[in-house]
Amino acid sequence: MASRDFDCIVIGAGIQGSFTAYHLAKSGRKTLLLEQFVLPHSRGSSHGQTRITRKAYEQDFYTQMMEECYQLWAQLEKEANVKLYRRTGLLIMGPENGRDFLLFKNTLLKNKVPTVTLEPSEFSQHIPHVNRNPGDGAIVDTTAGVLYADRALKAVQGVFHRLGGVIKDGEKVIDIQTGPVVTVTTASGVYKAKSLVITAGPWANRLLSHTNLQLPLQVVKINVCYWREKIPGTYSVTKRFPCFIQTECKEGKYHIYGLPSNEYPGLMKVCYHMGSETDPDERDRQTDRWDIDILSHYITRCFPGLVPIPAVVESCMYTVTPDHHFVLDRHPSHSNIIIGAGFSGHGFKFGPIVGKLLCELTLGLVPSYDLSPFKIQRFLSQPKSAL
Ligand SMILES: Cc1cc2nc3c(=O)[nH]c(=O)nc-3n(C[C@H](O)[C@H](O)[C@H](O)COP(=O)(O)OP(=O)(O)OC[C@H]3O[C@@H](n4cnc5c(N)ncnc54)[C@H](O)[C@@H]3O)c2cc1C
Ligand SMILES: O=C(O)[C@@H]1CCCC=N1
After folding, report:
1. CATH classification at residue 164
2. Which residues form the FAD dependent oxidoreductase domain (predicted)?
3. Which of 22, 23, 293, 318 lies 20 to 30 angstroms, CA to CA, from 363?
4. Residue ranges making up the domain that contains 360
5. Which ligand 1 atom is nearest residue 174's CA?
6. Could you tell me the pLDDT band of residue 380, with boundaries at 50, 70 and 90?
7. Which residue has a Cα nearest atom 2 of ligand 2?
8. Which residues, 6+ apart, have CB-to-CB distance to 73 below 8 Å?
């Protein structure tokens, strides 16, 4: 096999591509992981210090996948000898009879996830310095916590490399020639492989255009806001303050979520689960701040211990599908091209299992989970499908 010939090429070294490459290398496949930017970088969706991990979901299939996911994260911690997860619990607040709150609650209870329900009378004793909305229920997923994102990406890429995997960063893919052997061209080389995995995050449709496929994906910029504690430590991870999700509330249509102060001392990360559309190459020209206004109002009302003006604003992108579920599927016209896309702002925690599933699809194995919620076919019945 010539040095530019591989069993598999993976395009995109975000969390999903890196875990796919890791699983392929573990399966003994000669694997190339291509990344357009020099690593590490902060231009896609996987950068930043932290992400939430949780079993709490509105749908059973995600909760069920998370069971194994926790084990795979722990395995990576061992392999890389690094701490990637800190248990904090996740507090879900929302109208007791609201649709989303009930979906979370029912999924948690049905799947026997360890939880604690906080009655209104005991709420402030357990969760001080938070004004619960009148009528809101509160339930804690005690398995949830924080993943150290940048550290995790470095760890998975490090293990991939140790397994003999090849990472070429600073190499943007500019062409894909389909066929039984796929030819991938970058600015500095031409590579061939029996299979190709496309995990290009916000650039997924750019890459897919070389294969005559377009998916209904919307790329949005997220303002990643950190808010200063009036008294440092009020919402700190060391005081066992949990991550939280606020479902339905009067400030906005989408959820608000937060993580305890941890990575930047004295600052708590609280974000809105939606942003404004952007071209991924022009992210910094998208300067909308309506989401920050929503957060400021919410924080003024519910988190009185935070200054309601963000102290730090970083940028990240979501790639959102119409139903907010992932795309994990084979290309409809080229069976040796596998696609992982549309992680819709909640994919990081699933990295180990997404990688395993994309690896299984690549190797022609029966996937470990039912992939019907993630099929491309589901978009075909939509009136405005871009397929
Ligand atoms: C602010 C924010 C908060 C989030 N919070 C959470 C959370 O709490 N919990 C959670 O589970 N998830 C969370 N997510 C979602 C999660 O981070 C993403 O779903 C996940 O990182 C997506 O990974 P990816 O590998 O698909 O994309 P990316 O990380 O964007 O990776 C794609 C890679 O492909 C590369 N690429 C693109 N085109 C080319 C090309 N032509 N040639 C070579 N390389 C190319 C890109 O440069 C990029 O590195 C959050 C996301 C954001 C933005
Ligand atoms: O995936 C997550 O846990 C976070 C929080 C809720 C909204 C999206 N991302």
Report:
1. 3.50.50.60
2. 7-361
3. 318
4. 3-46+150-215+322-386
5. 41
6. confident
7. 346
8. 53, 84, 85, 147, 152, 352
Distance 134 CA to ligand 1 centre (A): 36
Whole-structure pTM value: 0.97
- Hey, is 141 helix, strand or coil? strand
221-to-36, 270, 272, 378 alpha-carbon distances in Å: 19, 15, 11, 25
Of 272, 300, 320, the residue at which a domain comes to its end is 320
pLDDT one-digit tens code per residue, 153-175: 999 999 999 999 999 999 999 99
Do 164 and 108 share a structural domain? no
In terms of domains, do 316 and 330 share one?
A: no
Q: Which token pair is 127? A: 């969760």
Residue 55 lies in a domain: no
Q: Is residue 77 part of a domain?
A: no
**Mutate which of 50, 51, 69, 222 for ligand 1 pocket (most atoms within 8 A of beta carbon):** 51
Domain's final residue, options 292, 320, 348: 320
**What are the tens digits of pLDDT across the range 333-379?**
999 999 999 999 999 999 999 999 999 999 999 999 999 999 999 99
Is 382 a member of any domain?
A: yes
Amino acid at 303: F
